[in-house]
TrEMBL record, chain A:
Organism: Pseudomaricurvus hydrocarbonicus
Keywords linked to the UniProt accession: Cell inner membrane, Cell membrane, GTP-binding, Ion transport, Iron, Iron transport, Membrane, Nucleotide-binding, Transmembrane, Transmembrane helix, Transport
Identification of the protein by name: Fe(2+) transporter FeoB
Subcellular location: Cell inner membrane
Entry-linked CDD domains: FeoB (cd01879)
UniProt domain FeoB-type G: residue ranges: 4-171
Gene3D superfamilies: P-loop containing nucleotide triphosphate hydrolases
Keyword NAD: no
Any one GO CC term of the record: plasma membrane
Transmembrane helix in keyword set: yes
Membrane topology of this protein: Multi-pass membrane protein
Segments crossing the lipid bilayer: 227-248, 283-307, 361-387, 399-421, 458-476, 562-582, 594-614
InterPro entries: Fe2_transport_prot_B_C, FeoB_GTPase, G_FEOB_dom, Gate_dom, GTP-bd, P-loop_NTPase
UniProtKB/TrEMBL annotation, chain B:
Record GO terms (molecular function): transition metal ion binding
Residue ranges constituting the Ferrous iron transporter FeoA-like domain according to the UniProt record: 20-100
Organism field: Pseudomaricurvus hydrocarbonicus
SMART domains: FeoA (SM00899)
Keyword line: Iron
Domain of life: Bacteria
Protein name: Ferrous iron transport protein A
Stored Gene3D superfamilies: 2.30.30.90
Pfam families: FeoA
C-alpha cells in the first residue's frame, strides 16, 4: 500500500488539533471525504522529516464509546476498522492544558489500545496564565509516552513535535500496524477507576490554583444571559447577514463580469456553431452561474469559523437550544441551518455533528427551506419588476420588506415542517451535553486555512457535479435544434421547451405560463439559472439584461403570477446538487424521494394558494 | 419525575443536607455530585447518557457550580465541573443527584 508512515491526530473537540495539523502540514494538506461517509478527512505530508510521514486529522472526540457519526469515524480510524483506510501507525494525542482531566481521560483510554502514542500538551501559555503548573517530564514518565508542550496558535513547540514525530517514525520503520478488533478495544476499566488514575497523575504532576472568577466567567455572564445574550446573538446574526449580502456584492460583480467577459471572448474567437454554443452557454454560463456564489459562501464561513474558533458558537447553540427544541430540533442543529443560508449543500453535510439520528434527519429535511443565496437573483429580479420601491410605515422599504418576508416564510415553514416530522417520532430524548470551551482569540492563520479549505471543497464540487449537470441541462435546452424558418427562440423547440409545454397544464392553477415552466428546467442545476433562462425564452438581450427582463416580465405577468413564482421558489427543491447530497447523507432512496416530493408538494401548494388568493384580492 | 431511591450517600455532608437533582438548583449554587440516577425520558440510551456524563467528569464526589440558564424555562443549565463548563438540558440535569456544599469563601 502506501509507503507513508501514518500519524493520526486525536483529541477532544476544541483542543486545537486542527491548528496543530495546519502547522505540521502547511499548505500541502488535502480535504476529502472518508469512504462511504461525508465526514471530512484532512490528510497531508509532514514536511522537513527524512521519513515519509503523513498526518491525518481525526474528528474531535471525547471517548472511544461514541455518540455521533463524527466520533464513530474517529474511533474506526484509530482502530483501523474504516474500510479503505490504513490504520494509523502512531497516534498524536492533543490535550488542552487548561482542560487536562478531560483530555487525559481520552489519552489513558487510547493508551490501552497499545498503539504507539505521543502527547502534544497544547495551550500551555493559557494554562500558565491561569497559574496551572504542569510537570511535563513527570507526566511523560507516568504515562510512559513522550509529552511535548505546544502553543499551536503561536507555532510554539511545533519543531519539537516534529522531532518527536521523526523519532517515532524511525522506531516504526520496518514494522506493520494491525487493525484492532472490537474485542481488543473492549474496555475493562470503569470510568471511576480511570478517573482515579487521572487524579493520581494530576496530584503528582499538576498544580491547579483555586478556581477564581476571571474575565471568561464575566464574559459568559453577558453572552449567555437569557435576555442580554439573546439580544447580542440577534445583533451578531444580523451583522453576519448584512455582511453576506452587502460585502459580497463587489466580488460577486467581479466574478460575474469575469465570466461574462470570458464568454464574450470565446464567443468572438470561436466560429459560430455547436462547439461555441456549448462552451459559452453550457460550460462558462453554467459554471459561472454557480461560482458567483463563492464570495457569499466565503464571507458566511468566515463568520462561522470566527464564531467557532472564539468559542461563541456553542454559546449560541446553548441559547437557541430551548427555542429550537419546540420544533423538534436542538441547539446542535443551529450551525447546519445557519450554513444553509449560504448554500444547503455544506449545511446538510455539517448535520453529521448532530448525535440524535432523528434530529439529524429533520435538520436535513428542512435545511433547504433556509433561503440560500441562489434564490436571491430570482427574488431580486421579480421583486424589482413587480413590487413598487415605496416607503411604508415611515422607514421600511417595501421591496426590502418583501425580501424579508420571503426569508421569514422559509424559516417559519422550516419550523412547521420540523414540528410535523417530530410528531411522527417517539418522544425519547437525546442529551444536549455540550462542552462550552474557553473563549479565545481566533488565529488569522487558522481562519485563512479554514477558508481556503471551504473554497477548495466548493470549487471541486463546481468542477464535478455542477459541471456535469450544466452540460446535461445545456443539451436539454439546445437539442433538437429549431426547424428551418422557426421564429421563436431556439429553446422553445428543444427538449426543455417540449417538457415545459408538457408541464404547463399542471402549473395552470398557479397561473404559470409555458415560458415560466421552461425556465424551471435549467433552474434545476441552480435556482439562479432561472433568470438567464427567462431571459432566453423571452428573447431579451443587450447589456442590462436584468433591467430589460424586468420590464418584459412586468408587462407580461400579472402580480399574482409573480407572487406565485416567488412562493414556488421559497419551497421547490430546484437544485440537483442538494438532492444529490441528501441521497449521500441519508444513504436512503426513500428519504431522498420523500425529501423531493414533499418540497415540490409544498411548492405547488404554496404557489397555487398564493395565486388564487392574490387573484381574488386584487381582482 | 425523578427518583432518588438509588442514592448511595457516601459523603458525610449528604446526611446533613437534603438531596436534590441539579435541575432543582439555583444559579450560583455550589454543589457536590452524589449519584447519577436513571432518567426514563432517555429510554434505552439512558445508560449511555450516564456513561457519557461520567466520562465528561460528572462523577460522584465532584463539585460543581451552577453558572446560569438558557433563554426559556430555565433550560438548558450551564455548569462548571472541575474547571470545564458544560451545557446540560434539564433532562440530563435531573439524572444528577446533588447536595449543597457549604458556601465557599
Amino acid at each position: 500500500m502506501s509507503d507513508f508512515i501514518r500519524f493520526a491526530l486525536v483529541g477532544n473537540p476544541n483542543c486545537g488539533k486542527t491548528s496543530i495539523f495546519n502547522h505540521l502540514t502547511g499548505a500541502r494538506a488535502k480535504v476529502a471525504n472518508y469512504p462511504g461517509v461525508t465526514v471530512e478527512r484532512r490528510l497531508g505530508p509532514i514536511t522537513g522529516i527524512s521519513e515519509n510521514v503523513e498526518l491525518v486529522d481525526l474528528p474531535g472526540t471525547y471517548s472511544l464509546h461514541v455518540s455521533s457519526l463524527d466520533e464513530k469515524v474517529a474511533r474506526d480510524m484509530i482502530l483501523g476498522q474504516l474500510a479503505g483506510e490504513a490504520p494509523p501507525d502512531v497516534l498524536v494525542a492533543v490535550v488542552d492544558a487548561t482542560n487536562l482531566r478531560l483530555g487525559l481521560r481520552l489519552v489513558l483510554e487510547l493508551e490501552k489500545l497499545g498503539r504507539p502514542m505521543m502527547l502534544a500538551l497544547n495551550q500551555v501559555d493559557a494554562a500558565k496564565r491561569r497559574g496551572i503548573k504542569i510537570d511535563t517530564e513527570g507526566l511523560a514518565a507516568a504515562i510512559g509516552i513522550p509529552v511535548i508542550e505546544t502553543v499551536a496558535l503561536r507555532r510554539q513547540g511545533i519543531a519539537a513535535l516534529k522531532d518527536a514525530i521523526a523519532q517515532a517514525a524511525e522506531l516504526h520503520k520496518g514494522r506493520t500496524t494491525q487493525v484492532i478488533s472490537d474485542d481488543q478495544a473492549q474496555r475493562t476499566e470503569s470510568v471511576e477507576s480511570l478517573y482515579h488514575r487521572i487524579e493520581g497523575l494530576m496530584n503528582a504532576n499538576v498544580e491547579i490554583p483555586a478556581d477564581r472568577t476571571n474575565w471568561q466567567d464575566r464574559l459568559d455572564r453577558l453572552v449567555m444571559h437569557p435576555v442580554a445574550g439573546m439580544a447580542l446573538l440577534f445583533v451578531v446574526l444580523l451583522t453576519v447577514f448584512q455582511a453576506v449580502f452587502a460585502w459580497a456584492t463587489p466580488a460577486v460583480d467581479l466574478i460575474d463580469g469575469g465570466f461574462t467577459g470570458l464568454g464574450e471572448l470565446v464567443a468572438t474567437t470561436l466560429p459560430d456553431g455547436i462547439l461555441k454554443n456549448f462552451i459559452v452557454d453550457g460550460l462558462i454560463a453554467g459554471v459561472g452561474g454557480v461560482v458567483v456564489f463563492l464570495p457569499q459562501i466565503i464571507i458566511l464561513f468566515f463568520f462561522i469559523l470566527l464564531m467557532e474558533d472564539s468559542g461563541y458558537l456553542t454559546r449560541a447553540a446553548f441559547l437557541l437550544d430551548r427555542p429550537m427544541r419546540g420544533v423538534g430540533l436542538s441547539g446542535r442543529s443551529f450551525i447546519p441551518l445557519l450554513s444553509s443560508f449560504a448554500c444547503a449543500v455544506p449545511g446538510i453535510m455539517s448535520t453529521r455533528t448532530v448525535p440524535d439520528p432523528r434530529e439529524r434527519a429533520i435538520a436535513i429535511m428542512v435545511a433547504p427551506l433556509m433561503t440560500c443565496s441562489a434564490r436571491l437573483p430570482v427574488y431580486t429580479l421579480i421583486i424589482a419588476a413587480f413590487i413598487p420601491n415605496d416607503t411604508v410605515f415611515g422607514f421600511f422599504n417595501l421591496q426590502g420588506l418583501t425580501l424579508f418576508a420571503l426569508y421569514i416564510a422559509g424559516i417559519v415553514s422550516a419550523a412547521l415542517v420540523a414540528w410535523v416530522l417530530r410528531l411522527r417520532n417517539t418522544r425519547e430524548e437525546y442529551p444536549l451535553l455540550l462542552e462550552l470551551p474557553a473563549f479565545r482569540w481566533p488565529s488569522a492563520y487558522h481562519l485563512f486555512m479554514g477558508l481556503r479549505e471551504r473554497t477548495w471543497v466548493f470549487l471541486r464540487r463546481v468542477g464535478t457535479i455542477i459541471l456535469a449537470l450544466s452540460v446535461v441541462l445545456w443539451a436539454l435546452s439546445t437539442f433538437p435544434a429549431p426547424p428551418v424558418g422557426a421564429v421563436g427562440p431556439a429553446i422553445e423547440y428543444s427538449f426543455a421547451g417540449q417538457i415545459g409545454r408538457f408541464m404547463q397544464p399542471l402549473f395552470e392553477p398557479m397561473g404559470f405560463t409555458w415560458q415560466m415552466c421552461i425556465a424551471l428546467i435549467p433552474a434545476m442545476a441552480a435556482r439562479e439559472v432561472a433568470v438567464s433562462a427567462l431571459a432566453t425564452v423571452y428573447a431579451v438581450g443587450g447589456d442590462s439584461v436584468e433591467m430589460a427582463l424586468g420590464q418584459t416580465l412586468g408587462s407580461s405577468w400579472g402580480l399574482p403570477v409573480a407572487l406565485a413564482y416567488l412562493a414556488w421558489f421559497v419551497y421547490a427543491p430546484q437544485c440537483l446538487a442538494t438532492i444529490a447530497v441528501v441521497r449521500r447523507e441519508t444513504n436512503s432512496a426513500a428519504a431522498t424521494t420523500f425529501f423531493t416530493v414533499y418540497l415540490f408538494g409544498l411548492a405547488y401548494l404554496a404557489a397555487v394558494l398564493t395565486y388564487q388568493i392574490a387573484t381574488a384580492l386584487l381582482g | 419525575m425523578t427518583s432518588i431511591t438509588s442514592v448511595s450517600g457516601s459523603d458525610d455532608n449528604a446526611l446533613q443536607s437534603s438531596f436534590r437533582t441539579l435541575d432543582q438548583c439555583n444559579k450560583g449554587e455550589c454543589l457536590r455530585l452524589q449519584d447519577l440516577v436513571a432518567q426514563p425520558a432517555f429510554g434505552e440510551h439512558d445508560e449511555e447518557v450516564t456513561l457519557r456524563l461520567k466520562e465528561l467528569g460528572f462523577l460522584p464526589g465532584t463539585t460543581m457550580t451552577v453558572l446560569g440558564y438558557g433563554f426559556l424555562g430555565r433550560d438548558p443549565i450551564s455548569v462548571k465541573v472541575s474547571g470545564t463548563k458544560f451545557a446540560l438540558r434539564r433532562t440530563e440535569a435531573s439524572k444528577l443527584v446533588v447536595t449543597t456544599l457549604e458556601a465557599q469563601a
